[in-house]
């Protein structure tokens, strides 16, 4: 089950990484392309603007003054450029190329159809003899000569080669990135499944322990009931021990089912805390009075230390349940002649509640586990019987009231459980 989930999560995580890598690679490529061709486009546009804004006859005169000599290009025209890498081609009204006698223009001999401008005032790309060019063309009116098409063209081979290298590097990088994405996806999927596996194992253990705990009282009730059926003529007085056992196990079973239901509803967050203001010191006095007779009957004593009024915003019923759970545990693990202390005090920001006893204590290695469900130390099992659910419910109540727990215990000397609740509680 977890293996299939692991594979699905791996695929999902890998796809996310691959998409992110692809988007990042695309952004880098198109940004680089834009930056490379930005200067090319600006140079071509600047050259065209230069020709449009300056009459060609003035260009001819200024050039003849600077460089006297015969000019043989069919029209007697030669153009000056700001970017020496830009060539200028002139087309007459019949789309014939007027060539200059230079080494660069020889490349276009026989390739007039390829380089002839298809659109005006629009940047275009063309490939001639494995060379890449970008050009821009416009119409220019020359007095005395007519209308010509001026085409400024620039070799972009270096830009193309750089982009191709970048594309190759990115392809290799994306390949490595995909492998890393799969590995990362597998790792992250495994990490994300850890709490799920722990929760599953915890649930399985909970079901197993609950089944075991439920089986025990049911088996006792079933056995005692079978004994009663074997003696149908016996009176209750004759079978008082069996009837008492059935009654005890029934109450134990009822309490266990109620606790399991509480924990199940708490896990699904179905129980809401009805918080309201009440006097915590008065609640402690009430609970202590109810326990005095029971504690006295067991040969133990209980002491209350609540000298001041403590107003608490909380679910009174759940706080009552919490205190009863802690007192029950203290009584259960305190021997005859022992003492139990219930203390309450308030500070500027907190309310502190302590339950202390001088009972059998808890081993140091067992203290972090006492709030786990169905957990009981070996020593505790020899001293008293229990289901191991009370402190789990107590932990849930404490967490719902944003409290903190501190446990101090020494074997043979006793245990102290301290609860710290903040004053500010949301109603």
TrEMBL record:
Name of this protein: histidine kinase
Enzyme Commission number, as recorded: 2.7.13.3
Keyword set includes Oxidoreductase: no
Lineage: Bacteria, Bacillati, Bacillota, Bacilli, Bacillales
Entry's Gene Ontology molecular function annotations: kinase activity
UniProt keyword annotation of Cell division present: no
Transmembrane segments: 12-32, 166-189
Composition bias type Low complexity, residue spans: 55-66
Principal localisation: membrane
Compartment(s): Membrane
Catalytic reactions on record: ATP + protein L-histidine = ADP + protein N-phospho-L-histidine
InterPro entries, per database record: BphY/WalK/GraS-like, HATPase_C_sf, HATPase_dom, His_kinase_dom, HisK_dim/P_dom, HisK_dim/P_sf, Sig_transdc_His_kin-like_C
Ranges where the record places region Disordered: 55-75
Enzyme class, UniProt record, top EC level: transferase
Domain Histidine kinase: 209-425
Keywords from the named record: ATP-binding, Kinase, Membrane, Nucleotide-binding, Phosphoprotein, Transferase, Transmembrane, Transmembrane helix, Two-component regulatory system
């Amino acid at each position: 089950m977890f293996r299939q989930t692991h594979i699905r999560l791996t695929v999902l995580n890998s796809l996310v990484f691959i998409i992110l890598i692809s988007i990042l690679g695309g952004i880098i490529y198109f940004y680089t392309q834009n930056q490379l061709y930005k200067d090319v486009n600006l140079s071509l546009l600047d050259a065209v603007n230069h020709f449009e804004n300056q009459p060609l006859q003035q260009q001819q005169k200024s050039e003849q003054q600077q460089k006297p000599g015969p000019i043989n290009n069919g029209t007697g025209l030669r153009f000056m450029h700001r970017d020496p890498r830009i060539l200028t081609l002139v087309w007459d009204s019949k789309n014939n190329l007027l060539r200059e006698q230079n080494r660069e223009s020889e490349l276009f001999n026989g390739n007039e159809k390829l380089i002839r401008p298809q659109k005006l005032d629009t940047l275009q790309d063309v490939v001639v003899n494995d060379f890449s060019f970008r050009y821009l063309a416009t119409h220019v009116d020359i007095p005395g000569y007519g209308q010509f098409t001026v085409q400024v063209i620039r070799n972009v081979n270096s830009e193309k080669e750089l982009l191709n290298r970048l594309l190759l590097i990115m392809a290799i990088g994306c390949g490595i990135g995909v492998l890393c994405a799969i590995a990362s996806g597998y790792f992250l999927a495994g990490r994300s499944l850890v709490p799920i596996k722990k929760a599953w194992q915890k649930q399985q253990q909970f079901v197993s322990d609950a089944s075991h705990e439920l089986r025990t009282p049911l088996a006792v009730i079933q056995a005692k009931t079978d004994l009663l059926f074997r003696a149908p003529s016996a009176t209750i007085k004759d079978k008082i021990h069996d009837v008492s056992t059935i009654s005890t196990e029934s109450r134990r079973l009822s309490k266990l089912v109620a606790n399991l239901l509480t924990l199940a509803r708490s896990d699904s967050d179905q129980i809401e805390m009805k918080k309201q203001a009440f006097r915590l010191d008065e609640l402690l006095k009430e609970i202590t009075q109810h326990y005095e007779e029971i504690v006295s009957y067991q040969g133990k004593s209980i002491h209350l230390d609540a000298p001041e009024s403590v107003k608490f915003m909380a679910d009174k019923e759940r706080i009552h349940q919490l205190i009863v759970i802690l007192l029950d545990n203290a009584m259960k693990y305190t021997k005859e002649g022992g003492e139990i202390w219930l203390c309450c005090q308030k500070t500027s920001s907190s309310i502190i509640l302590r339950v202390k006893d001088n009972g059998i204590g808890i081993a140091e290695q067992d203290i972090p586990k006492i709030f786990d469900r169905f957990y009981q130390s070996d020593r505790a099992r020899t001293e008293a019987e229990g289901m191991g659910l009370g402190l789990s419910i107590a932990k849930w109540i404490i967490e719902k009231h944003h409290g903190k727990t501190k446990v101090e215990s020494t074997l043979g000397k006793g245990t102290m459980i301290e609860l710290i609740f903040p004053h500010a509680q949301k109603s």
